[in-house]
Amino acid sequence: MMNVADNKKDEQLEEYRINNDGKKLTTNHGVRVSEDEHSLKAGERGPTLMEDFHFREKMTHFDHERIPERIVHARGFGAHGYFQVYESMAKWTKADFLQEPSKKTPVFVRFSTVAGSRGSADSVRDARGFATKFYTDEGNFDLVGNNIPVFFIQDAIKFPDLVHSFKPEPHNEMPQAATAHDTFYDFIVNNTESAHMVLWTNSDRGIPRSYRMMEGFGVHTFRLVNAEGIAHFVKFHWKPLLGVHSLVWDEAQKIAGKDPDFHRRDLYEAIELGNYPEYELGIQIIKEEDEFNFDFDVLDPTKIWPEELVPVHRIGKMTLDKNVDNVFAETEQAAFHIGHVVPGIDFTNDPLLQGRLFSYTDTQLLRLGGPNFQQIPINRPVSPVHNHQRDGYHQMRIDQGQVSYHKNGLANNSPAPASPEEGGYTHYQEKVEGHKVRKRSDSFMDHYSQAKLFWNSMSMPEKQHIIEAFQFELGKCLNKEIQQQVVDMYANVDHFLAEQIAIGLGLEVPEKEKESTVTDQSPALSQLNTPMSAQTRKVAILVHNGFDGEDLMNVLKAFEQAGMMAEIVSEHQGKIKSANGAELKVDQTFLTADSVLYDAVYIATGQESVDALKKNKKVNEFLMNAFNHYKAIGAPKEGAALMQAFLMESEKAAAGVITSDNTVNIDDSIEAFIQAVAKHRHWERQI
């Protein structure tokens, strides 16, 4: 099958890419500029003249170069890539990009935080956006989702209220990029449909390790429609091949200060190094006749379809292999819209989805300055565009001819509608009837059963993290009544959870009778059941002059073979020398690096090197942070004494701390360390 879209998006963008190397400076109208250091004046010390058209153009453009940031999802970072389906999905859908395994469909993905401004930190506790634009031969399909499969509210009319509640409070414009304040939790206790989502955001899912290690979800229930017109309900999933992993809260807070660009830097560097992030696209399918066979409403956006009840079928893979050339032109001007669908994909009556179908276009009209935002290069489809929509701000097309309306005779009714056989989009013919009402279905009224399912599915470390997250979040609230209301609300989910929150805040423990009776679990919800790998993990190697050069070369070689990324961290920049005089380039110092920026720490062997590290107080802090954040620490031979000097007696054989004496083969020690890194965290230290 001919792949029209393959590479076409990149060729289309090539027309707009500008390389200024070796070029002469010009105005925006192409006039060469002879001077760009001084404005035109009446004499050397005289006033600037208005006739200086270059100054006026340059300053005017600067004054107008900022556009309104997104109200939500303002802080984002994007990358290009491609998607390939594993086998034809014709059984479920007629969407062309889901038919041919050999076809590469270009994609652009924007990851984001939800609550904060563009200047906020990456590692805050928040839901993360995961928006994917597929440039298919039939037009653009936008899968606009989050890293959490449910949402706070059930009806879009509540969305302005939700966002107002978690944004900085209007009377003092605080706090930034945080929900740990009164107005958010006041909203939550008065809109209890949020109980499930708040458990997710206060779990480890709210502080992901990396965009590359984060699931994505379409959240809503959509329809897939095949060529015969048969429809199935569907939910979309992105499954990262590196597994789903998170930070710990203390670590996330420290990263916000050490490197507020932590997630975007991680994504950018991974792609530049060729460690291309990969995600499998999964679908959950429910037959229309089975719509009412579950104890939850399949259209409720605050509910998941448990994978044990409705399996996820992995149908294809997305690879992100190219960074953007310009963040503003591509990432910030990318306009996603849940209503951008292609034949074979349709909507359902999910009331949150229905509202988003209006909201996204309305938002882009304001943010991008008019109705022609789809002509911006990053938004242009690779399929041809022909219609009678004309004029408006920033119109780039030069439409030819006399006619700009439908139907017409002067142009033989061109452009003419396409039949379904010709690829024309047709909406699924769903029978709809009922009275006009402002009401929510009774099937949406269970707000606690799935929250209980989520809680039941967590491991003990994950449950402890949720408890501590609530204690932190509510501990920042000033209103004691709101704190107590949240505790009382979560007593409907799990009494132990509510009790622990209450004890931590000095509040009244509610009665146990309110607790949900749900006993089911969904193992797929726990991050302890995700793939574990050392690939692309970043390791800090602590080293000083006098290190064992042969051992360290073996370490670096083994790390490279395992797909791990190593950085040499020492007291100063430049080069250091091994015991036999060989030189090694230093990547970071203890001032520019911190263990929170790495997945693991390794102490190089060599008595002189270890002795020098012992004298540096920052090494102590480096190791203790790594230990307290449950990371793997490698300390073979002489390094063992350095590590154990900082540990309590009971911790000297702690999980994930790999030590050895001089009788142990260094290769065995390295292999044990790599396996410890692959585990991500060693929660045995917490229990």
Automatic annotation (TrEMBL):
One of its GO terms (molecular function) is heme binding. The active site is at H73, N146. There is a cross-link at H337-Y360 (3'-histidyl-3-tyrosine (His-Tyr)). Its EC number is 1.11.1.6. Decomposes hydrogen peroxide into water and oxygen; serves to protect cells from the toxic effects of hydrogen peroxide. PANTHER family: CATALASE, CATALASE-B. This is Catalase.
